[in-house]
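Q&A log
Question type: sequence-to-structure
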Amino acid sequence: MPLEAHIEVLKPGLATSIQDRGRQGHYHLGIPPSGALDQYALAAANLLVGNPEDAAVLECTLLGPTLRFHRAALIAVTGAAMVPRIDGVTQACNVALAVPAGATLAFDFVQAGARACLAVAGGIDVPVVLGSRSTYTLGAIGGLQGRRLAAGDTLQLGEPGPGAREGRSLPQALAVDCPKSQTLRVVPGLYDHRLEPESATSFYEDGWVVTSEADRIGYRFKQGRALRFREREQPFGSGADPSNIVDACYPIGSIQVPAGVEPIILHRDAVSGGGYAMIGTVISADMDKVGQMQPNQTARFQRVTLQEALDARQAYRERLQRLREALRS
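Response status: OK
Response body:
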């Protein structure tokens, strides 16, 4: 192990990766934003340990890692209820915790939600790639060699800021809520007119269940009624599937339904375009909720107007501002 390493990865967990707020301005080149799937949890974890909101953290999915700290550190765990243990002693989430040099940090099984953000004062120190430290595994860029953590990896930390203070806690009203059932608000998409009227209605009436195919690229849902697309002569350049279109851009949160069977919500590592019709887009204020859903949990989609989506975005920003004020006071 290199002498300068501050954290040693003993067990990597299920899908632990380094993430920050993400990289912007490259989606038109096919490079998605990446970044933490729960952006609010990212900000909360960093503020708890006195970091800038966009410092790099470890995003821990369903099963957390086991880490040995070779330098005393201040940590915080937010997002999913993934209870930390320092040298076997159970600790609290949403609190700034001191980890002594030589101690081991592990996690209990997740109790609610899917992704926890583990922030360390000073941030995870890896190279900045295209303006971000976030890991994009499909492109093998960012993070630690462009991949998830593996046993034997070592991580360096930046220097803690003056705001690092043990015991700072997140007010319960501002903690991340991870219910087993979600309502996801959707602005109808550019291609919802391709649906038969009964399918345009049933999509919002039915309950949907998250499949095992739920990751940073996209969340697939099942058990709702199959959607029927209006019959037409497919235009030149599109495929034979009734949901195919001539290639178009995909916004993050857009919903496509290959063959009309299982809707997929594209998330922060998704490709930037393709040949499936987008019947709607989950609003930005609800994308954190998607990232906290586990397989077999349920969701309903709620149609909203663009103005309602903008109002929800403003409410999200106001909650984030209350978080800043609470943790900087």
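Response note: The mean pLDDT is 95.
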